Amino acid sequence: MNVIETHRLVKTFGGRAAVDQFDMHVNQGDVYGFVGRNGAGKTTVMRMLAGLAAADGGEVRVFGTDPKEAGTSRRIGALIEAPGLYGSMTAYDNMMLKALALGLVDPKDKVRNLLAFTGLSGVGSKKTRHFSMGMKQRLGLALALLGDPDLLLLDEPLNGLDPEGAREVRQLIMHLNDQRGITVVVSSHVLEQLGKMATRYGVIREGRMVREMSAADVDQECSDFLRLDAANPTLALAVLQERFPALRFQSMPDASIRMFGSVDAGEVGSALNEAGIAIQGLYAHKRDLEEFFVEMMGAEYRG
């Protein structure tokens, strides 16, 4: 079941399409890693999913209906951009203010439980303007959880955190997904942390969805490979596919060939020499998560 589904979604600002023909699919129970460069349109998409901004075209459905509808909006918890805290108030008072705005009945126990869950029960009368970045992000997460949402939209919740703070927030997100069954869409530049919790991914570039994939797909494509640069790449690919049928091959926009699987560079070189194909370069490459996503986010990537 798709918790979120968008079709050809469009949002323009000053005549420029910040989101353009955008298709997105988030399944129930996903931790959906939403990846893209600054300015790619991530926050704009998140605001439309939360019902905080209207689309100029296309369709967005959350739990099968418009996210701005009252019944749907109560099922969505959002932390988009800054948490929006009142700096002169305590964490407890910030929480109580939102709880009353949501119309929660007798919310004191709920507020205390969420502050304890996010590790903020001991902050006492400390004003939030004196909170560290990590404390503010955890309080923002607690605020997003006040209405017992089925869906969390978290826009850069790891931004500005030190490694320990990022780990704490990541563990909270994983607990919410695993123990409470909350579907989570989380955008982040901290790919190392994202890779430890995401079950599916979507990559946005210049307002368009480049690709959606599972964590298993990413693991497979982040595997090490042999890179080949040959004088005749088309013929080289045909020769190698016939000689090594168990390998997976990928032709790149720069005309190089990537080979995935158990293969010896010497055997590849011998096969090409026998076919009379000149080798310009052949070397093993270790690929990581950051490189994989940067290729898709960058202008050189063609999908």
TrEMBL record:
Question: Which domain of life does this protein belong to?
Answer: Bacteria
Query: Which InterPro entries does the record associate with it?
Result: AAA+_ATPase (IPR003593), ABC_transporter-like_ATP-bd (IPR003439), P-loop_NTPase (IPR027417)
Q: Which GO terms describe its molecular function?
A: ATP binding; ATP hydrolysis activity
- Report the residue ranges that make up the ABC transporter domain in this protein: 4-231
Q: Which UniProt keywords apply?
A: ATP-binding, Nucleotide-binding, Transport
A Pfam family reported for this protein in Swiss-Prot or TrEMBL: ABC_tran
The record's PANTHER family line, in alphabetical order, gives: ABC TRANSPORTER, ATP-BINDING PROTEIN
The record's comment on protein family reads: Belongs to the ABC transporter superfamily.
Q: What is this protein called?
A: ATP-binding cassette domain-containing protein
Source organism of this protein record: Gordonibacter massiliensis
Its organism's taxonomic lineage begins at: Bacteria, Bacillati, Actinomycetota, Coriobacteriia, Eggerthellales
